[in-house]
Amino acid sequence: MTADFVYLVGGACLLLAILLPDLLSRWAVSAPMVLVALGMLIGLTPLPDDLPLDPQDNRAAIEHVTELVVIVALMGVGLALDRPLDPRNRSSWGRWGATWRMLLVGMPLTIGGVALLGWGAGLTPAAALLLGAALAPTDPVLASDVQVAGPQTGDLEVDESDEVRFTLTSEAGLNDGLAFPFVHLAILMAAGGSVSGWALEWVGLDLVGRTIIGVAAGLAVGWALARLAFRSQSRTLRVAERGDSLMALAALAASYGVGEVLGGYGFLSVFVCALTFRSAERSHDYHAAMHEVAERLERLLTLFVLLVLGIAVTRGLLEALDWRGVLVGVGLVLVVRPLAGVVALRAWRRHQEPGEMRRSEKLVVAFFGIRGVGSVFYLAYAAGEAPELGQDWLWSTLGFTVILSVLVHGALATPVMARIDASNERR
């Protein structure tokens, strides 16, 4: 019965992935909102009792499914970014200035703010830090309504006016990997022992070492695949000429696998691989074809996860939720993330910085910190490493926060971004 149910849900998601984008394009309703609501309604019907919905009993399955969704989304996000990032060019780094501020200032502030809320709610320091680390990164999966549309190809002229979409997209691509050090820190804290015993290991390995390895793996795999696809001496191996867009799946699997096998952060590897591949033959139409494959697969997997999440909500996921969990979720979405974003975008301010955003645009970037599938993955991963971190209250609070973000940000994304677009056109 469980296998039959999975096929049923998968078929429904495939159909909805085809129909929903055009059906919802005129209204301030996002596909994630519809899928979560539909899942909640399905959860109220008489379903089999053995469905794999309990996060405690199905932690490994949840971890691997959400892991796949995130890496597919990261490949699509990396391919969609037109703005180059050349490590040897200082001005190139400056054009990503808002992204660096959101990562280096906004993200730690968000982790600390949520951790303080969790600690005040009675969590142990390790559990509070895990909650902050899991909920801090914005989600590349659910943020399609506020992200760049896709790669420009042909006669490429990079549009520098849409700083809001670029910042939200690039932030979502990078902060999923950069949350991992803090998840590992929570696991080390839960394991006990003196701080001096694991502090150097965390700084040297988890914070610095794994990050460098992940970036290096992404660079190497992206360079190698781009050279193969565009410049191989054998015409048979130049897949870009044939337009075989399944290279996107090979790239995300290879980069993630290499990054993880070498001990780095695979999420960073996938995103950096996509950026590196995108930098080769930047105007080639092949990038758009690869992005389309990643985007379609991401949409299907996302709808599946959200439908199951909606079913789980009305089948007991929120049973452990209390006023403290509600306070954490509402506080993150409406207070912590917006304040952290505003502080971050005012940090290191330079008068001549390229792409400086107006005040209204900064408020939009600060507010749209969408939470989603990545947060579910981090909690499932940490619970596998330290079972005491997989408590029901954390699952309920995280589930509530994701649903709240889907509803609030989903309802506001269309009208807010329409105003931003209209303002950019007037400028």
From TrEMBL:
InterPro entries: Cation/H_exchanger_TM, Na+/solute_symporter_sf. One of its GO terms (biological process) is proton transmembrane transport. It is a multi-pass membrane protein. The keyword Ion transport applies. Its main location: membrane. It is found in: Cell membrane. The chain crosses the membrane at residues 6-24, 31-48, 60-81, 102-121, 178-200, 207-226, 246-277, 297-317, 323-343, 363-381, 393-418. It comes from the Bacteria. This is Cation transporter. Residues 15-418 form the Cation/H+ exchanger transmembrane domain. Keywords: Antiport, Cell membrane, Ion transport, Membrane, Transmembrane, Transmembrane helix, Transport. PANTHER family: CNH1P, NA(+)/H(+) ANTIPORTER 1. GO terms for molecular function: antiporter activity. One of its GO terms (cellular component) is plasma membrane. The lineage of its organism: Bacteria, Bacillati, Actinomycetota, Actinomycetes, Propionibacteriales.
